[in-house]
Write a structure and sequence with these properties.
Largest sheet: 8 strands, mixed
Shape: globular
CATH architecture: 3-Layer(aba) Sandwich
Number of domains: 1
Number of strands: 8
Length: 269
């Protein structure tokens, strides 16, 4: 498996598919998820002529798993490592959940990002998880009163969305894609989760300057699907898509609808 070395010596693994001369599509998974969770996207995007790179950031999949020191800033710098080392240009970044906010972290830190990134896709991730009077699209139940304790032991159940046992093939596809993922949380991972939760990436979206697509699951268990339209309204060129009969892991639960929406959007850009 190909690998890269970050500026602090940590190994980052990735896999590559499709046409080496095609437009690069870089897939960045969510919290703890391995790059193999893109199993439903890789063939579709490769068949469409793209050069597809599924990346394991630090702490994911086969890449190195540091005990601590990983925050959203570090994740953004790891994206820079990948794009710079492979000299990717005109790239499309696709981020699922925390992977989406990792894109905003990268773009907010890197002047090179303006030259390397031509478009980005956010999969069911609000740019601000903390709810307040001006932003009702955060994580259900998370506000100033429990800001520092809400994610102290993991990701709370919200009571929203379709129960797992009633998702049918959506659940089968999700469990197949997530097979083998460690569901326990280390102290370092909980620290990252908190750093993710308190951040506000709305200014980064407004400053991105490239076409952005925000995909939401109509039945997301984490936040209202209205976050997609609200986020798109912040962007210079923003588009929102809400997938019916779909939860948080849109690219895994409804891969055909997700792939179609993204590929059709990309064909116009």
């Amino acid at each position: 498996m190909p690998s890269l070395t970050a500026d602090d010596g940590v190994r980052l693994d990735y896999t590559e598919y499709g046409d080496p001369a095609g437009r690069p599509v870089v897939l960045i998974a969510g919290f703890k998820a391995p790059a193999t969770t893109w199993r439903y996207q890789v063939p579709a995007f490769a068949d469409a002529g793209y050069r597809v790179l599924a990346v394991d950031l630090r702490g994911h999949g086969t890449s190195e798993h540091p005990d601590d020191g990983v925050d959203m800033g570090r994740r953004g710098r790891d994206v820079a490592v990948v794009l710079d080392a492979l000299d990717l240009r005109d790239a499309v970044l696709v981020g699922g959940s925390m992977g989406a906010n990792t894109i905003w972290s990268y773009l907010s830190q890197s002047d090179a990002g303006r030259r390397r990134v031509a478009a980005a896709v956010s999969i069911d991730q609000t740019p601000k998880m903390l709810n307040d009077d001006g932003w009702p699209f955060g994580f259900y139940g998370y506000d100033a009163a429990n800001r520092d304790t809400f994610f102290a032991t993991g990701i709370p159940e919200t009571g929203h969305g379709t129960p797992m046992a009633k998702r049918g093939m959506r659940l089968v596809r999700l469990m197949t894609a997530m097979k083998g993922m460690n569901r326990e949380f280390t102290p370092g991972e909980l620290a990252l989760l908190h750093d993710h939760a308190v951040a506000d990436w709305r200014p980064a979206i407004a400053a991105a300057g490239v076409p952005l697509l925000f995909v939401a699951g109509a039945e997301s268990e984490y936040w209202p699907s209205g976050h997609a339209a609200a986020s798109a309204a912040l962007a210079v060129d923003g588009t929102a898509v809400v997938l019916d009969d779909d939860g948080h892991a849109a690219n895994m639960e409804q891969p055909k609808a997700f792939n179609r929406a993204v590929l059709e959007w990309l064909a116009r850009r």
